[in-house]
Amino acid sequence: MKSLKERIVELKKEKNVVILAHYYQENDIQDIADYVGDSLGLSQEATKVDADIILFAGVHFMAETAKILNPSKKVILPDLKAGCSLAESCPPDLFRKFLDQHPDHTVITYVNCSAEIKAMTDIVCTSANAVKIVESIPKDVPIIFAPDKNLGKYIMSKTGRDMLLWDGSCVVHEAFSLEKLIEVHKKHPDAQIIAHPESETHILQTASYIGSTSGMINYVKTNPHNKFIVATEFGILHKMQQEVPDKILIPAPAKEDNTCACSECGYMKMNTLQKVYDCLLNETPEVTVPEDIIRKALVPIERMLELSK
User: Fold this and answer.
1) Rounded distance between C-alpha atoms, residue 271 and residue 79, angstroms
2) How far apart are CA 271 and CA 29, in angstroms?
3) Which of 119, 196, 274, 285 sits most deeply, having the most CB atoms within 10 A of its CB?
4) DSSP assignment string, 116-154
5) pLDDT tens string 80-131
């Protein structure tokens, strides 16, 4: 009897489906994906798709972005309930009121937000290009940055720009314990700490390198150091370890004890290999975005992609 992975590969070819997966997906899903990447890489890859169907193994806002970039293609997501705490921290009705209270600001939103929020935006960014995007705005133009306050604070420290921040955050990247991190570092004093900029400032202050998921992978590949403590969602360690099989990678500890003593995104882990197969087989659940939202949201996404070339 064929394995679930083998059946997925067969179905994928039969239906002309491309599978895009985020680094935070479970290992088995990353292994059968056509492309694994971070938000910027996935957005860029979504513009090159020539398949009939895009199966997005990630969370809802990512599948929405793929749909915005490919309005004529069917986009499916293994579990429609795979949301994002950061995206949910920025409800469209409240954000609209916030914008109305602060007119004449250029609005930059992190890609981790809903299509409706993107439709209210001047330019979208990811953690990989956020500093570059902010620096592209003239210094005399006031900026609203949403929804991630931690990423916003980090960008402000890097650029010297004063931005008006929306009060949102990612529960996964706020789950790291500084106390436990110090304990782990005492056990591994020769390890470098690397962190995602969605993490809180006190975690970032301990890091030798701060960057996006793809940036962190590139850093461990090119850095001569042999041991790293990695402060981002645990799923990244799968691809990272494949890239540096001889290096030691240690997940940064979370405040709460859980199955892996690390920080995992429950939303990302809602997608399973079985759900990927069912999704392929039935071509559902499908992710749809209203045409007017697609039209408006496409503009800031395309601006980001143009600046990221």
Assistant:
1) 6
2) 8
3) 196
4) HHHTT-SEEE-TTTHHHHHHTS-TTS-EEEESBHHHHHH
5) 999 999 999 999 999 999 999 999 999 999 999 999 999 999 999 999 999 9
The enclosing H or E element of 200 equals none
CA end-to-end span of the chain, whole Å? Answer: 45
Contacts of 220 (CB under 8 A, 6+ apart): 194, 228, 240, 243, 244, 247, 249
Q: In what order do the strands lie in the sheet with 35-37?
A: 35-37, 17-22, 53-57, 74-76
**Structure confidence at residue 108 (pLDDT):** 98
Taking the CB of residue 63, how many other CB atoms lie within 10 A of it?
29
Please name the residues in contact with 135: beta carbons below 8 A apart, sequence gap of 6 or more: 159, 161
Position 47: which residue type?
Answer: T
Query: Under 8 Å CB-to-CB from 138, ≥6 apart: which residues?
Result: none
Which pTM does this prediction carry? 0.92
